[in-house]
Amino acid sequence: MAARAAPVRFRFMRIMTIVFCGGVLGFQLIPAMPRHTAFVALGLGMAFAMLAAWGLRRRWSGGGRGLWLVAGVLAGFLYAGWRAEIRLSEALPLALEGQDIAVTGVVASLPQAFERGQRFVFELDERPRSVPGRISLTWYAGPDEAAGQTPGFRAGQRWRLTVRLKRPHGNLNPHGFDYEGWLLQQDIRATGYVRPDGERALLDPAVPAFGLAVERLREAVRDRFRQALPEGAYTGVLIALAIGDQRAIPAEQWRVFARTGISHLVAISGMHVTMIAALAALLVGGGWRRWPRLALRWPAQQAGVMAGFLVAWGYCLLAGWGVPAQRTLYMLGCVSLALVLRRDVAPSRVLAAALGVVVVIDPWSVLAAGFWLSFGAVAVLLLVSAGRLGPGGWLTTALRTQWAVTLGLVPALLVLFQQFSLVSPFANAIAIPLISFVVTPLALLFALLPLQMLADLAHGAMVLTMLPVAWLGELPGAAWQQAAPPPVLAVLAGAGCLWALLPRGTPARPHA
Description:
This protein has about 500 residues and is α+β, with helices and mostly antiparallel strands. It contains 20 helices and 9 strands.
């Protein structure tokens, strides 16, 4: 009896994680913050549902579980509201918009250069009490500075500046990029620019802090690529693969990536993180076995797994800590902990744990396209794996897996990007092995070892990869483009695609 109860309990925990995330998503989709009385009412409703579920746990188990699900949705909604209330409380007063303000702080992100200056995130140390602590600043070059006398803002520097700020504003176009929402997710509560005739003094060239040290390292790697490949057509792609900074990739290349369905390979995807972790685990585990004293103190498999997790953590930090990288790191952490504790953990439980951790740390992650594509792709792989792919060699398995991921993500791609690549299976068959196992390792090796040969090899491999991929992108009808489908239709289409991926013998599967 206890053996049957444990899987049911774990399965219900996974469901609770999903409904909690559904509550968080529900809050993010509402147009305005509810009143405090609404939060109080929802909190009382959650408490009542929990007490009622506890009281019904023996008399009516089905009704008790239903009440727990209601409580989970309300908990997610209230948690997201609490986090939003904290973040929205730090708002720039209207009276300070357009006024000169003296602030002191550190450059907390990679400065992005453009034709007229630089943009960067500035975390304030000294400021008026009503000014938010994290702002986005733009510096515009003057006539003399454009000639070469630029201040050269770099990550980790502390400056005293005179700035003018305003509250975040953005265009609210349906299915377009929500700039104001993105700023809220990044905890940037004001934007502005550095006054050209105000105070501008460098106080510390390198502030000693771990996060700032990571940003300085990322900036150094970016500069190294730019110096090694100043005229390289895919220098921006190599930078994106090494440190996650995609802003140097030209718009024309993004168009080719989108038409061929390989945009996920240019970002720091879970595949890249897993590959680096696996390589580190194999190297450390193999070396560990050659030292009997070490192997007797700690099993080589556990040592290799922990080394792989630590290397993956470092790579995720270097890559900018995106949602796909976080999801992979948390999953690797669960697997590593299970192996160290010698526990058997189901893959779906690992995915659910990673989902819960990502949403708890960042409730706004549910609005990111990478969130849905990353977790969606892994969920589809779990759905079609575990002996369901049928007989066949590795090539047959790879083709079926690619087909499953392609079909399962079609509705999400049409909702998020209003297009879907029809040549994606062929382009990915070419690009996945080359970018994942050749280009990315060479780019990371160059980030660690500044050898020109490594940069040239990485760029040359990327050029060769894109020759057939770009040809596929130019084929007539390479991409299916349409207006964003209504939410109801998207949900029905997603259910149909997932139903079609269920095992043979499932009722109505051929019609899905």
